[in-house]
Amino acid sequence: MTTTNIDAAAERLLGAHSGGIPCAPVRDLVATADDAYAVQDRLTERWLAGGRRLAGRKIGLTSRAVQEQLGVDSPDFGMLFADMAVPDGAEIPAGAVLQPRAEAEVALVLEHDLTHERHTAADLIRATAFALPAVEVVGSRVRDWDITLVDTVADNASSGMYVLGNRPVLLKDVDLRLCGMVMERRGEQVSTGNGAACLGHPLNAALWLADTLVRVGRPLRAGDTVLTGALGPVVPAAPGDVFEARVDGLGDVRVAFGKEEG
């Protein structure tokens, strides 16, 4: 794969991001996951150079069904920037996320770096300050969500914004594998699941991420937020929608979507 193709894919996605108009897929320019991560890295460097601050990472494709749909057997990851964080209960302006969808997750906030080549569960537990309930608002710069693995990876793992609950919970005080999740949209139940739906346990997803990021030279650091992956089905979001997710042992988190003007 040529550098020219990687640069062209990055520019296409950047144009959709800044212009607010979804673009064509980038799989005509990049063919492998490694190439797609190279595109993601180009975007990350551009954003960091422009003043955005890296605040953590998100894990995607933790659902076996979605993995089978895209023909992969492992998750993917994307960057979380500080300006993607939305306060609990706040409203996301219309158009801020292209083609938004909401999913309930477990978030981990780290107290220590994770820099080993291979981490144990004990390493991860020791490094985690606390867990929080979260709603990730995924989005796609690719028109009509017409994505393959390379499209979503290049597009920062279809990231958008994220909302964290405000009551930190120590890992010793919650069973993340068995915790149930219910998410409502305007009071109607639209998604249910549990921690086991996320690669068998949200910590399994976080371990995969920690090891992978060391290999690519961007290890997780103290203070990072990790979105560990969806606990249930992802739900489309429309202007005026209000989502509330409750995760057993972690509490609830809420986000609203602003109505379009005019």
From TrEMBL:
Highest taxon of source: Bacteria
Entry's InterPro entries? Fumarylacetoacetase-like_C, Fumarylacetoacetase_C_sf, Hydratase-Decarb/MhpD_sf
Any one Gene Ontology cellular component term annotated for this protein: cytoplasm
The record's section on SUPFAM superfamilies has: FAH (SSF56529)
**Which keywords belong to this entry?**
Lyase
Keyword Iron assigned to the entry: answer is: no
Which part of the chain is the Fumarylacetoacetase-like C-terminal domain? Answer: 64-254
Q: Note one Pfam family from the annotation.
A: FAA_hydrolase
Q: Which PANTHER family match?
A: 2-KETO-4-PENTENOATE HYDRATASE, ACID HYDRATASE
Q: What is this protein called?
A: 2-keto-4-pentenoate hydratase
Q: What is the species of this protein?
A: Actinomadura chibensis
